[in-house]
Amino acid sequence: MRAPAALARLVLSHMPAMKALMVETGGWGGIAHYTWNLCAALASAGVDVTLLTNREWELAHLSSSFEVDRCFSAGAGYLGNVKALRERVLRARPGVVHVQSVLSTRLDALLWPLIRRRAPVVMTIHNVRSHERIRWDDWTLWRCFAAADAVVVHTKQAAEVARQRLPAAARIELIHHGDAGFLQGKGRPDRLVARAALGLPSGAQIVLAFGAIRPYKGIHGVIAALPELRRRHANARLVIAGPLLVGSEAEYRDAIRRAGVDDAVVFHPGYVPAEAVATYFAAADVAVYNYRDITDSGSLRLACDLGTPVVATAVGSFREFLTDGVTARLIEPRDTPALVKALGDVLAQPDAATRMAQAARALAASAWSWVESAKATAQLYETLARGAA
Questions:
Q1: What is the pLDDT of residues 287-304, one digit of tens each?
Q2: Is 231 within 8 Å of 225 (Cβ atoms)?
Q3: Can you tell me the distance from the alpha carbon of 310 to that of 66, in angstroms, rounded to the nearest whole number?
Q4: Kindly report the CA angle at 183 between 153 and 81, in degrees rounded to 5?
Q5: Which helix (DSSP H) or strand (DSSP E) does residue 189 occupy?
Q6: pTM score, two decimals?
Q7: How much is the mean pLDDT over the chain?
Q8: Domains and CATH numbers, the chain
């Protein structure tokens, strides 16, 4: 007779691969990029994963090792998208449904308990609170998280917030955000080539503020700091690139005009396609994250992984994985003199800035591996599937 351990291995080797439905409803931006990388890593780990995403999925040009079902659409309305999701859950009979973004922050609190009747539900908490602190959105979003069999967070701070907001019995898994993944392309573009592609002067010192433009990111503070920075570094230029989600373009252009730096700011208030992301970071001498408050930032992790020196405020999880003077320059929020000094130091000491960026990139390669994230995620799926069975 076979030994129990050998028999268990034989049974497991003949079991079908874990089937997971990954739900990412937007089809664009950082969460879509994160989801693609996770799906690819899970597929490499042997998970049979299908991504349910938007018909306008921006990554359709990528070759995927997993199935993609572009079933969501703004034109279908909420009930139409709910119908599409339910049909696919019923048809696929997955071992787990993993939610990266919901259909509607305000309406989904009733949806996910219904889906949970068919399969265990995992939800990734990319943001532990709504950025603009809209109370109703915040309350309903946490109702969704509370309905899940497990939630995934990326940082210790996010885990602590989740413990405070969720029932005591909630399963909270700390699984690190992966690296830049496919956004790295075939390597970092040449700086001069990147600047030429973006129409930036080759000899300038470029400060990059990259990502969705929202008040909590402190971009007004970066604009206000630019005149003093240019008194120390006359060639300093600020590039602001990302979709303008809160506020108006006129508001930011007026701030630039009042600061007297019209000729030193390149303002691109629009979505940056995935294929252009690395170009912006390659063109920059430093990426700035003057956030007032945050739990995590995919954009900051991109800067680290793509080898661009970072100046950031010491808020949220930035303090968890960055060390001042080693992997980034960290300052206190709302401290304009400290922001000017940190940016000036990076621009004045390019060799030291390069060493700092290399240390951050080494950290990203070791601590933010998609292989490790996928391994932990697959283990969570197996645990939940066994419990459901």
A1: 999 998 877 788 888 999
A2: no
A3: 34
A4: 60
A5: none
A6: 0.86
A7: 90
A8: 17-178+369-383 (3.40.50.2000), 182-367 (3.40.50.2000)
